[in-house]
Amino acid sequence: MISLKGISKTFKTKNGAVQAVDNVNLEIEAGQIFGIIGYSGAGKSTLIRLLNLLEKPTEGSVKIDGKALSSLTPSKLRAARQEIGMIFQHFNLLWSRTVRQNISFPLEVAGVPAAQRKKRVEELIELVGLHGRGDSYPSQLSGGQKQRVGIARALANNPKVLLCDEATSALDPKTTDSILDLLLDINEKLNLTIVLITHEMHVIQKICHQVAVMENGKIVEQGPVIDVFRKP
Ligand code: ADP
Ligand code: ADP
Fold this sequence. Notes:
This protein is α/β, with parallel strands linked by helices. 36% of the residues lie in helices and 29% in strands. A hairpin with a 2-residue loop joins strand 1 (2-13) and strand 2.
């Protein structure tokens, strides 16, 4: 589903160069929940931005669904981007729009006709458990409800992959568990591939099948969660 080969990303700064990602190889299979864990500064955000096609690698190749991204024309790259949904630590909702309008937004951008949009938005509201909240504004919602809106919006265009950038780090433990349960539920129901980055071991242990441990831009260990984090 996603394959990274020899990926490096260097940023030029006033004081020289920073190698945020250093020769990373990853194979993420369709239907998996794949976790990337590491301390702050390890390179996780840069890696997820490379997966989201927001950054270009300095070296190496990214393949999604067998297609090398470097070979795509701009219009094919836009189409590839639509196959990737993303959710964020601080939700990134449109604050002046209702839940329905937030979820509808990516459908509008994709040019989906109004009648179809309306139907899809109601499906998504049910899927993420926001029944009765469609006309609320983000400021009227709890953190967990805001992240449900984020998830619904990310899924609107039926992506093949959902990227989660510290998606539960702003939530309390109980709300974190309810969002993780929702991610498990959609992984099973939709056979959606999920890639998440986190600094919380609990998140990895609760829902991930595979994990990669990142340190100083490098993957220092990877494999099934039960093997990597086996208790001695
Ligand atoms: P994490 O998400 O694990 O905290 P990041 O990917 O944000 O790690 O950062 C990895 C390293 O790359 C850090 O040293 C960070 O300062 C540096 N870095 C990230 N983005 C940039 C950028 N746009 N310009 C310069 N340095 C950056
Ligand atoms: P947190 O998860 O830390 O509580 P929020 O999700 O509330 O953060 O905020 C995320 C971003 O959206 C912040 O940059 C914040 O300034 C902005 N923001 C939050 N509430 C509103 C609002 N009602 N109107 C406009 N921007 C807002």
